[in-house]
């Protein structure tokens, strides 16, 4: 991809929104499909914790990992990114991990049809609207109302887009001081990279812990 970081940022936003929505939706459908079996097994004395752990391992190892790899390979080729496959996959998988945690919660708190709608709607909201792209993180930081800036902090795409854009700026040897200024104009800071990665993976863990509470109650119905 050329030396326009704005184009890089836009591509990252769209790509991670796609991964996020798809991962959330699939997790919702997966848990919705398994809940009748879970309720039957729990009624026969099988551990709810063991079932929940097994479902998460399966979803992570089979669905999330494969989807992230299959998405990353063509995207790196099409965009011509300079960052490594491992770097891009780290963020793509983190996005899928975080959003699937949200998707797992939905069928545990509402009916299957509403769960699908909520899963897609919430993930899309944080992916396409509250993402710090338009207006930028910098513009929100400088705005008179700080609430607008705080609203984007829990957005998976705010962090995924920043991490990928930072990685590409660092990996592309054609980039110069102008791109560093452009990065700063977005409100992106290389020191935020670790924060972005931690947010994606820790939010996925937190959402699963929340999910377990509702999953446990649903399993006993």
UniProtKB/TrEMBL annotation:
Does this UniProt record's set of keywords contain Membrane? yes
Entry's transmembrane regions: 12-31, 64-82, 88-108, 115-133, 193-216
List GO molecular-function terms, semicolon-separated.
Answer: ABC-type transporter activity
Q: How does it sit in the membrane?
A: Multi-pass membrane protein
User: Where does this protein chiefly localize?
Assistant: membrane
A Pfam match is ABC2_membrane
Ordered alphabetically, the record's keywords are: Membrane, Transmembrane, Transmembrane helix
The keyword rRNA-binding appears for this protein: no
User: Any idea where the ABC-2 type transporter transmembrane domain is?
Assistant: 14-166
Compartment(s): Membrane
Q: Which InterPro entries match?
A: ABC2_TM
Q: Which GO terms describe its cellular component?
A: membrane
UniProt protein name: ABC-2 type transporter transmembrane domain-containing protein
Organism of this sequence: Chloropicon primus
């Amino acid at each position: 991809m050329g030396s326009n970081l704005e184009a890089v940022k836009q591509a990252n936003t769209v790509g991670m929104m796609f991964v996020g929505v798809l991962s959330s939706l699939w997790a919702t459908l997966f848990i919705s499909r398994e809940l009748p079996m879970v309720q039957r097994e729990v009624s026969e004395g099988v551990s709810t914790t063991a079932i929940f752990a097994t479902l998460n391992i399966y979803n992570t190892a089979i669905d999330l990992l494969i989807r992230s790899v299959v998405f990353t390979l063509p995207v790196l080729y099409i965009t011509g990114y300079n960052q490594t496959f491992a770097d891009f996959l780290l963020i793509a998988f983190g996005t899928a991990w975080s959003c699937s945690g949200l998707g797992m919660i939905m069928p545990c708190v509402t009916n299957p049809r509403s769960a699908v709608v909520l899963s897609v709607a919430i993930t899309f909201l944080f992916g396409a609207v509250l993402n710090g792209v338009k207006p930028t993180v910098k513009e929100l930081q400088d705005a008179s109302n700080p609430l607008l800036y705080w609203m984007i902090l829990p957005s998976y795409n705010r962090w995924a887009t920043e991490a990928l854009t930072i990685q590409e700026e660092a990996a592309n040897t054609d980039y110069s001081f102008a791109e560093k200024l452009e990065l700063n104009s977005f409100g992106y800071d290389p020191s935020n990279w670790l924060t972005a990665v931690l947010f994606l993976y820790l939010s996925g863990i937190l959402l699963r812990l929340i999910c377990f509470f509702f999953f446990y109650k649903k399993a006993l119905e």
